[in-house]
Amino acid sequence: MAQAVAFGAVASTALVVGAAIGARWTLPEHVYAVLLAFAGGALLSALAFELFLEAEEQGGVARAAVGLVAGATTFIVIDAFLLAHIRGSAVSLALLAAVTLDGVPENLALGISLVDGASYALLVAIFASNLPEAAGSATRMRDEGRSSAFILGVWGATALLLALSVVAGAGVSDRVSGGMLAVMLGFAGGAVLATLANTVFPEAFEHGGPYVAFATVVGFLVSYVIAG
Questions:
Q1: What is the pLDDT along the chain (228 residues), one digit of tens a residue?
Q2: Hey, CA dihedral for 180, 184, 189, 191, is it positive or negative?
Q3: How far is the C-alpha of 214 from the C-alpha of 228, rounded, in Å?
Q4: Number of Cα atoms under 13 Å in the Cβ half of residue 84
Q5: With b meaning 16 or more CB within 10 Å and e meaning fewer, what string describes 56-78?
Q6: What CA–CA distance (Å, rounded) separates 125 from 12?
Q7: Fewer C-beta neighbours within 10 Å, C or N terminus of the chain?
């Protein structure tokens, strides 16, 4: 359990650091884009070689696929609802909700991974994605007139929730069947994949252009080497 707490703290620290940066400064667009692209590549590698592979080993490809589709569908539906119903000054809160939506299954999966050996590749990927996402949303909050105390408070609460998700994942992993673990891991993978396709890569390209492809490749390779 101590390891789960440590992993949760490390992964969630990036949210607080990113929020602190965004509450005071605006990252240059090309830096923001490179960080997002690197994180996207790292998450893609961790998804393929950690999450989905582990899901298949736990309960077979069918259960893993069910979880994958369910996770992607859940993210897409809720994200579409937020975009359709939240306007103006609440957009930054919608970004916060989106980070939480894919962050909870990610961190649950990170906790589950501790049972058969810690997934450092997934930890690095989550940390790398949390920082620019929190910085970008915090910057929007600041531009909308939110105070630094509000920004740090709401992101601190989010960081605590996601850290607890890691602990929860480690706690339930030895109480459920392999088939259920497969679905849970697949669900996390689906939410991550939908996030990458729907948000991370399009936003990185918008702010950084085609050169972000290099950052994506580097992120993929770093995560792959760590996983190996």
A1: 788 899 999 999 999 999 999 999 999 999 999 999 999 999 999 999 888 998 999 899 999 999 999 999 998 888 787 777 665 545 566 667 777 877 888 898 888 877 666 678 899 999 999 999 899 889 988 988 889 999 999 999 999 999 999 999 888 877 888 899 899 889 989 988 998 998 889 989 988 888 899 999 999 999 999 987
A2: positive
A3: 21
A4: 6
A5: bebbeeebbbbbbeebbebbbee
A6: 12
A7: C
